[in-house]
Specification:
Order of helices and strands: HHH
Shape: elongated
Helix content: over 70%
Number of strands: 0
């Protein structure tokens, strides 16, 4: 179970990764190490990153099907 400080660290990393993804991509380079640092197993951290990016990948395609 994560502590309050770990939740805060993950939340800050998520916000930073969102900003990086909006500008150039590569936010996983922030979130993945943070999730592993707080004790989440690497496979679970990888799945978490992949699931988190699904809306970013599919939103433009749903909005404009010609893409």
């Amino acid at each position: 179970m994560l502590t309050g400080y770990e939740y805060l660290l993950v939340a800050l990393a998520a916000m930073a990764a969102g900003a990086v993804n909006a500008l150039a991509g590569g936010g996983t380079l922030i979130t993945f190490p943070t999730l592993v640092f707080v004790g989440i197993p690497p496979v679970a951290a990888n799945v978490t990153n992949t699931v988190a990016l699904c809306p970013v990948i599919w939103a433009p395609r749903l909005h404009n099907p010609k893409i």
